[in-house]
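for the writeup, i need someone to sanity check this before i put it in the appendix. the sequnce is what the collaborator sent (i think, or maybe the updated version? ugh). structure was predicted straight from it, no edits. if anything looks off just tell me and ill rerun, i have time this weekend
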Amino acid sequence: MKAIRYHEIESPIGILTLGASSEGLCQIEFGSFAENESRLRDWSGRQFGTDAWERDPAELAVAADQLRRYFAGDLQVFELPLDLRGTPFQVRVWQELTAIPYGAACSYKQIAEAIGSPKAVRAVGGANNRNPVPIIVPCHRVIGAAGAMVGYGGGLSIKTFLLGLEGFEGGAPAAGGELV
């Protein structure tokens, strides 16, 4: 496996470190590469068999541009190749998260039901917490069943910012298990 290529971008929520394998975007980390280097190298060693990371802004230019457009309010749907690495269950959850529309939210229970594992609400929460590509795979759009802002790897202030950017006005997810 070649090195994971990375680039850092400024955003309204701070520096983001983007990482890509030869297959697609595989990591977005809150903070600089230097701040997260040890954890990122450990993660890529487990997931890709390499702890090598090389700065390559050109390789991540499209992802960086789409994120800038998202933060400017000019992009609602990302169109990027992803290389999601995790357990089969985690990958199913992450794929389902991409079905949550911009400006909407759903509950952990709704995600569990949508993937055919209605009793796996806590496992969905665990997969959500391990999402390697936040924002692009919109785990910030998952809220508590009663509409509470619960858990986010980047912190609740970032989750609240992202939902506000998308125009989400709060409240409980729609009933009936439909993603909204």
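Residues 175-180 have pLDDT under 50 and may be disordered. The chain has six helices and six strands.
thx in advance!!
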